[in-house]
From TrEMBL, chain A:
One of its GO terms (molecular function) is thiamine pyrophosphate binding. SUPFAM superfamilies: Thiamin diphosphate-binding fold (THDP-binding) (SSF52518). It comes from Neobacillus novalis. This is Thiamine pyrophosphate-dependent enzyme. CDD domains: TPP_OGFOR.
Automatic annotation (TrEMBL), chain B:
CDD domains: TPP_PYR_PFOR_IOR-alpha_like (cd07034). The keyword Oxidoreductase applies. The keyword Oxidoreductase applies. Pfam families: PFOR_II, POR_N. This is 3-methyl-2-oxobutanoate dehydrogenase subunit VorB. Residues 14-193 form the Pyruvate flavodoxin/ferredoxin oxidoreductase pyrimidine binding domain. SUPFAM superfamilies: Thiamin diphosphate-binding fold (THDP-binding), TK C-terminal domain-like. One of its GO terms (molecular function) is oxidoreductase activity. It comes from Neobacillus novalis. It comes from the Bacteria. Keywords: Oxidoreductase.
Length: 250, 354
């Protein structure tokens, strides 16, 4: 009896086991990016830029040429790569500490220039790698290592809503926020990543997908509770949807 | 091509173009803004790209990205902006990426002013950013020498896969002199099979990174870097000497300070004082040889700098206690005059002779 293959690991990822914590959705997002690169048949034409944070080692996992950038600077590094190699697909993979805090300037200006790159922005409302400190995306009242009494607007201000802000820039061609808290949303996430790369392929300008993600370790929740927390706590603050699709990419 | 009259900052830019640099990422800062403006106009003519970054930090990281694809790439700045580039430079070193970074030094610390200075000597020669490293640093003293050293800088960068610093002071950037861009003879070819340009047609994915989580592995990597620095020290020392044969006193100066010092030396020689000059051209690796060869014959060395005394530390290391080392410097953008330096020579000559 021959068996039918119903699922296999994408060639977009290497065989190296990831170091991510149980219940963290970085692995899922990596797989989705890898699948899109493979299915679009652009793996060999892609240069990825890894950032600093939990996903720093993503260069070990994506099965394409990879360059590792300094903290927050991935969009600047990607700019350098893309300007020399306009026919290559160039993407960054950044967390919320990297992109929304130390690297907010680089990502805003990359979008303002209409830099024809794709940014995969993973938002789990906390710094993971350094041990659970407040990020610009940390929710009001959320307890972290540096907001032990909960984030207080009068002290730390309000969360930055990156998609809303970025979509005001003329150079931004495709901006969408998606989530990984259940299977239908994971499927939507893959579609969004596809459309972002399609935007770049068509040379339409800057594309970014913000993916709401989990951090069970630093949230102090188990994996299942973490998914619930994304749905119940994060999604109301960070509404899902397409914020910008300038050229109607499908 | 005959001689043309150009401004120092523009000469650096044109020399880079002649060296095959087609990519420049910059940010405006006085007194190097002409360099950026020249590149903005010039690079499109040669099918290259100029991009104004949102900050010096972004500019050096764009350089990192472009360098990772294997092309010749450059950025330039002046002291405060050069400080901002240090993180990126450390990453370039760690990831072994070639690039040329120009620092037209101005008065500091802090915002300082926009007048000429050499007070970034420590920063360029002792590392500058975090981690164990040195950078090749070339310091031209004339605009014609800028032409030669800018091209050398790109070759050194590619030869050793390292960032190279081209260091001038505000005076060198702003002055005008006739220069000639000779045709470059075909230099060595540099194979860049490490460049991340996509894997199509060349096999397994390539990775450019400075991260090495395992301590033993990072130490091995650092040992390799140190071996590279040792090779650079062996092969890339550059300096010139003047009137050392009979010198009782040896001046040490680089860049435009060396030119002013030369005038003071001529005057002192007319007065019968036997003075010579060592002009380091590579500030790192620092030229130790001319000191070792002279230190047991001379009465004293005098380091002349547009700083409170930075290169003097390397002079003392090279002299290693064999002779006294004196100093004359002006800071804050004040350029030492020929007369001041002459007076210093005469004071030391008389003092030691007594």
């Amino acid at each position: 009896m021959t068996m039918k293959t119903v699922f296999k690991k994408t060639n977009g990822l290497t065989d190296k086991p990831t170091h991510y914590c149980p219940g963290c959705t970085h692995g899922v997002i990596h797989r989705l990016v890898g699948e899109v690169l493979e299915e679009m048949d652009i793996l060999e034409d892609t240069v990825g830029v890894a950032s600093v944070g939990c996903s720093v080692l993503s260069y070990e996992y994506f099965n394409c040429d990879m360059t590792q950038a300094a903290h927050g600077r991935a969009p600047a590094v990607a700019t350098g790569v893309k300007r020399v190699l306009p026919n290559r697909m160039v993407f960054t993979y950044q967390g919320d500490g990297d992109l929304a805090s130390i690297g907010i300037s680089e990502v805003i200006h990359a979008a303002a220039r209409g830099e024809n790159i794709t940014v995969i922005f993973v938002n789990n409302a906390i710094y993971g790698m350094t041990g659970g400190q407040m990020a610009p995306t940390t929710l009001i009242g959320q307890k972290t290592a540096t907001t032990p009494f909960g984030r207080d607007i009068s002290i730390q201000g309000s969360p930055i809503k990156v998609c809303e802000m970025m979509s005001t820039l003329d150079g931004a061609a495709y901006i969408e926020r998606v989530s990984t808290h259940d299977v239908p949303h994971i499927q939507k996430t893959k579609k969004a990543i596809w459309k972002a790369f399609e935007t770049q392929k068509k040379g339409l300008g800057f594309s970014m997908v913000e993916v709401l993600s989990t951090c069970p370790t630093n949230w102090g929740l188990d994996p299942a509770e973490s998914l619930e927390w994304v749905k119940d706590q994060m999604v109301p603050v960070y509404p899902l949807g397409v914020y910008k699709n300038k050229e109607g990419v499908k | 091509m005959g001689k043309v009259l150009m401004k120092g900052n523009e000469v650096i830019a044109e020399a880079a173009v002649h060296a095959g640099c087609k990519y420049f990422f910059g940010y405006p800062i006085t007194p190097q803004s002409e360099l950026v403006a020249y590149m903005a106009r010039r690079l499109p003519e040669v099918g290259g790209l100029f991009l104004q970054a949102e900050s010096e930090i972004a500019a050096i990281n764009m350089v990192y990205g472009a360098a990772s694809t294997g092309v010749r790439v450059m950025t330039s700045s002046s002291s405060p902006g050069f400080s901002l580039k240090q993180e990126g430079i450390s990453y370039l070193v760690g990831s072994e990426l070639p690039a040329v970074i120009c620092n037209i030094v101005r008065g500091g610390p802090g915002l300082g002013n926009i007048q000429p200075a050499q007070s970034d000597y420590f920063q360029v020669t002792k590392g500058g950013g975090h981690g164990d490293y040195n950078l090749p640093v070339l310091a031209p003293a004339s605009l014609q020498e800028i032409v030669e050293l800018t091209q050398e800088a790109f070759d050194i960068a590619d030869r050793y896969r390292t960032p190279v610093i081209l260091m001038g002071d505000g005076m060198l950037g702003q002055m005008m002199e006739p220069v000639e861009f000779g045709e470059r003879s075909e230099t060595e070819q540099f194979k860049k099979d490490w460049a991340t340009t996509g894997t199509r047609g060349d096999g397994e994915p390539k990775i450019i990174t400075s991260l090495e989580l395992d301590a033993e592995s990072l130490e091995r990597r650092n040992c390799n870097l140190q071996q590279k620095f040792a090779r650079i020290k062996e092969n890339e020392v550059r300096y010139e000497t003047y009137f050392l044969d009979d010198a009782d006193y040896i001046m040490v100066a680089f860049g435009t300070t060396a030119r002013i010092t030369m005038n003071a030396i001529s005057k002192a020689r007319q007065e019968g004082v036997k003075v010579g000059l060592i002009r380091p051209i590579s500030l790192w690796p620092f030229p130790e040889k001319p000191f070792i060869e002279t230190r047991d014959q001379v009465k004293a060395y005098i380091s002349v700098e547009m700083s409170a005394g930075q290169m003097i530390e390397d002079v003392r290391l090279a002299v290693n206690g064999h002779a006294p080392v004196d100093f004359y410097g002006r800071t804050g953008g004040v350029v030492p005059t020929q007369e001041e330096i002459y007076d210093k020579i005469m004071m030391v000559a008389r003092g030691v002779q007594v």
